[in-house]
Design a protein that fits this description.
Strand order of the largest sheet: 1-2-3
Structural class: mainly alpha
Radius of gyration: 32 Å
Helix content: 55-70%
CATH architecture of the largest domain: Up-down Bundle
CATH class of the largest domain: Mainly Alpha
CATH topology of the largest domain: Calcium-transporting ATPase, transmembrane domain
Order of helices and strands: EHHEEHEHEHEHEHEHEHHHHHHHH
Number of domains: 3
Mean pLDDT: 87
Distance between the termini: 59 Å
């Protein structure tokens, strides 16, 4: 019979020292034994060692680079295998797996989930892992708050693949493994995963940025509608004004930002972070815009409503561009260029007669510019103060009343 030396030999029979030496070198060692009868409960009665079969593992050229990427990104790789822990540890150390020298024989692990989770936090390589243990390990890691991705290709990996946050199967793996996995690497290249992670982070981070822009617009539009209704004033914007503001401060920037790569890790608390940004930004933008509009109406009592609406549009666009700049902080050359380009486009609309007529805008009188400037600067100052207050107190955190309400929904 062929099998792992320590699994075939009867309890008490010493495993040949040469087998351990070969395993420590990263070789897979299989023993050929003779036995008088078929095995019972995993042991061959009276098994006599006859030969050692040594299999060399071929390590892919890109394996070390892939492991290094995940380590740099604070993703901790843990190797769990059914092979000898010495073999697995030697190969894992060759490709740079952290704590590869801390190898554990899974047969010695406790079945208690808490103790198992502690063991997983301390070691980087586990050998002689049974299929049920792989599943228990995934569950133990998740119980400690980890997000777990599991890669595998065999039937013995199915349970763990199914319970992981992300099950990743190889294209050449068994049909069962491919069936339960959320992601299948068709070319069997583990080195594809850094690109997968980078794409996921790009989507998540940019989605949060875009959400902040859109929710801010919802906040200031709602508050402006309330303020104007209470004051009994005509609404300060025509639909085309809102189209222009939304396009330059939200629509076009959101489209451009969606292509920007990101190395930021995904974090929990998406909704609280969006609301903690959008609410103070929306409140400040609405208050400043309404103040400018109301003052412009009183200053331009003998003029048309067009001038007052133009003043409100200019003020809200300036505040919207500031919000855009706050969303993409820290600024780099490309992000700064995006904000400047959107500001330049708005100036061009005001300066080009055809565009100004189409959007029903006019350049306000000189004395109104002072009101617009003071209102925009005051709104920016109020926005920064409120953002810092919301960031410090975090009114939408899970432990708060608002956070609990959001969590339920």
């Amino acid at each position: 019979m062929l099998g792992a030396p320590e699994m075939l030999l009867t309890a008490g029979t010493p495993v040949p020292e040469r087998a351990g030496q070969l395993a420590a070198e990263g070789k897979r060692v299989v023993m050929l034994v003779r036995a008088e009868r078929l095995p019972a409960e995993g042991e061959a009665a009276g098994a006599v060692p006859a030969a050692l079969v040594v299999l060399g593992e071929s390590v892919r050229e890109d394996a070390a680079e892939t492991i290094a990427y995940f380590t740099e990104q604070k993703v901790r790789p843990v190797v769990i295998s059914g092979d000898d822990p010495r073999t697995v540890g030697a190969i894992a150390g060759r490709v740079g797996v952290p704590h590869a020298d801390r190898r554990v024989d899974a047969r010695s692990l406790s079945e208690d989930p808490a103790e198992l989770a502690d063991a997983l936090d301390d070691a980087g390589v586990f050998g002689r892992v049974a299929p049920e243990q792989k599943r228990a390990m995934v569950r133990a890691l998740r119980s400690h708050g980890h997000t777990v991705a599991m890669t595998g290709d065999g039937v013995n990996d199915v349970l763990a693949l199914k319970d992981a946050d992300m099950g990743i199967a190889m294209g050449a793996g068994t049909p069962a493994a491919r069936a339960v996995a959320q992601l299948v690497l068709l070319d069997n290249r583990f080195s594809r995963l850094p690109g997968v992670v980078a794409e996921g982070r790009r989507v998540i981070v940019n989605m949060e940025r875009v959400a902040k822009l859109f929710v801010t617009k919802t906040a200031y539009a709602t508050l402006l509608a309330v303020l104007v209704g209470v004051a009994g004033l005509p609404f300060p914007f025509l639909p085309r004004h809102l189209t222009l503001i939304g396009s330059l401060t939200i629509g076009i920037p959101a489209f451009m930002l969606s292509f920007e790569p990101s190395r930021e890790p995904a974090r929990s608390g998406f909704v609280p972070r969006v609301l903690s940004f959008a609410m103070p930004a929306g409140i400040a933008a609405a208050a400043a815009t309404f103040a400018v509009y109301a003052l412009a109406r009183s200053e331009l009592a003998d003029s048309s409503l067009l001038d007052a609406r133009s003043a409100a549009t200019i003020c809200l666009t300036a505040l919207g561009l500031w919000v855009l700049g706050a969303v993409v902080r820290p600024l780099n050359a490309l992000r700064a260029a995006l904000v400047v380009a959107m500001a330049g486009a708005f100036v061009a609309v005001l300066a080009i007669p055809f565009a100004a007529d189409f959007f029903q805008l006019t350049v306000p009188p000189a004395d109104t510019w002072a009101t617009i400037t003071i209102g925009a600067v005051g709104g920016i100052a109020l926005m920064e103060v409120l953002m810092r207050l919301f960031a410090q107190r975090d009114p939408f955190a899970p432990g708060t009343r608002a956070g609990a309400w959001l969590t339920k929904r």
